[in-house]
Design brief:
With 421 residues, the chain is an alpha+beta fold. The chain has helices at residues 4-15, 23-39, 52-58, 72-82, 97-108, 177-186, 193-210, 219-226, 231-247, 261-278, 282-301, 311-326, 331-342, 357-376, 392-406, 408-419, and strands at 18-20, 45-50, 112-116, 124-130, 135-141, 147-152, 155-156, 253-255.
Amino acid sequence: MIDVSQAYIDILKEELVPAMGCTEPIALSYAGSVAADILGEPVKALVAKCSGNIIKNVKSVKVPNTDGLIGIEAAVIAGALAGDSSLKLEVISKLKDEDRVLIRKALNQNICKAEYLDSPIPLHIIVEAYGDVHHSCVEITHSHTNIANMYLDDKKIDQEVNGYVEEQLTDRSLLTVAKIVEFANTVDLELVKDMLEEQIECNMNIAKEGFTGKYGVNIGKVLLDRNPNDLETKMMAYAASASEARMEGCPLPVITNSGSGNQGITASIPVVVYCQEKGLSKQTLYRALLVSNLITIHCKTGIGRLSAFCGAVCAGTAIGAALTFLQGGTEEQIDNTIRNSFANVTGIICDGAKATCGIKITSALQSGFLASKLALMGKTYDGGTGILKNTVEDTIRDVGILGKDGMHETDKVILNLMMKE
């Protein structure tokens, strides 16, 4: 018999992982670092083949710890020449000044060539490394650190022997809103406390860093200056501030959710700010974070890691559910919060990772806030209204179909538009 509670803990451990910088360029850095490890000699040339969604999400964000470098080539070179593959999504967190000089020199020498990879897999990376004697190849599919294949001189490497095992994720079909709420209410918090504390610390640290004015348009400060005493504004401001700092190359780590730092930020920071401002206990905070994190994962599972569907919508919807939970809402009201939110902002597109993700996060959160208020007032939209179904689980399922299948052609159009000067 399946232990659902343990499965939920395992899912959280799989999804709430640290990453420094936007996860797509960091996945490239990771692939470059592993390829260099396999090569076993100095890297002289690199080829990075990337699916459209990888290209889209690397195009406009700064690679952290590189003094502002941008692009596929910079990310791969940083990992291959100076990364530590054992750190996975923090692979370039320990770069030194001499590493940055080396990376910039190699970039100027054009040692890395980027190519479009026509693949049905949205998250698909192949990095090839060439030395004087050997060449190596690393293939990543489906998730950011999932190494599907490794080769040295065209000979396939036994991954398990070399410490790289293809990821086997816990069955996400076990997730339902009702079971998530039950889990959040009943789990022994000692079993999840450490990972939630890490999420709180990391994500709030980068939010505070975002207010320093070093990143983007300083959207967090702009929001707070307009309405400094409003709690919802503060929740949005801190989340947007964290996202903007991250997209602009801040070298602080973020605890991700569903492979995305922005989703990890959106699913956590507003709950932390709300509980702190209301003076609620740590135990209450932890339980609300379990709701927001797991509902984000649940809503995102059907869509997949990368899509033209903005992932902040799922996280903003989950925040609405967490607010309803925190205010004593019933299971029905939590369900209706999710349906109300999806009635509103399912049309937000993902046009790549970039500084403006922060402003999309504010829109997703506003939808979640409103959805919660309506649900707590006993108001919700009927099934059959647009894509809404009569049950929350059917609605989440259909949103997944929309995000994965329905947005497939949209994704291609977005990429083509982004590639035009």
